[in-house]
Amino acid sequence: MRFLDTNLLIRYFTRDDEKKAQRVLKLLKRVERGEEKVITSPLVLFEIVFTLQSFYEVPREKIKELLSPILELRGLKLPNKEIYRSALDIYAKKNLSFADAFNAAFAIKKGIKEIYSYDEDFDKIEGIRRVVP
After folding, report:
1. Quick one: pLDDT band at residue 50, thresholds 50, 70, 90?
2. Judging by DSSP bridges, how do beta strands 2-3 and 38-39 pair with one another?
């Protein structure tokens, strides 16, 4: 097993270096077929979202479209993939930061209905009640 770093997926998504993008595509196909296993960390996904949104100005819905198939790769090991799927939905639809979207998705998955926060963005999430201490 090998670790999959942020910059590979950024090259693939942005195609700013087509030669590298094609090599990453070949790798992803091997991962999809289960011929190769890779692992990544939550920080890689957060860094991808941040980089695509901030530097490449990719719209939120497009970021969701790009990352969703990566989460489905058979040979990708990443705990709590379902939370990332939900977080991408919230991120794209509710205009929250990816960090807030992930935290909301995490709380919902864990059956938590209230979040201590001063951040009013959580008020946009159905099933979550923001509590001010």
Report:
1. very high
2. parallel
Residue 5 φ/ψ, nearest 5 degrees: -95, 160
Q: What is the pLDDT of residue 69?
A: 96
What's the CATH architecture for 2-131? 3-Layer(aba) Sandwich (3.40)
Helix (H, G, I), strand (E, B) or coil at 132: coil
Domain residues of the chain, as ranges? Answer: 2-131
Contacts of 45 (CB under 8 A, 6+ apart): 67, 78, 84
CA–CA distance from 116 to each of 29, 98, 120, 130 (Å)?
42, 18, 11, 6
Confidence bin at 60 (pLDDT 50/70/90): very high
Q: How far apart are CA 99 and CA 105, in angstroms?
A: 10
User: DSSP for 92-109?
Assistant: HHH---HHHHHHHHHHHH
The SS3 of residue 79 is: coil
- Give the pLDDT confidence score for residue 93 in this predicted structure: 95
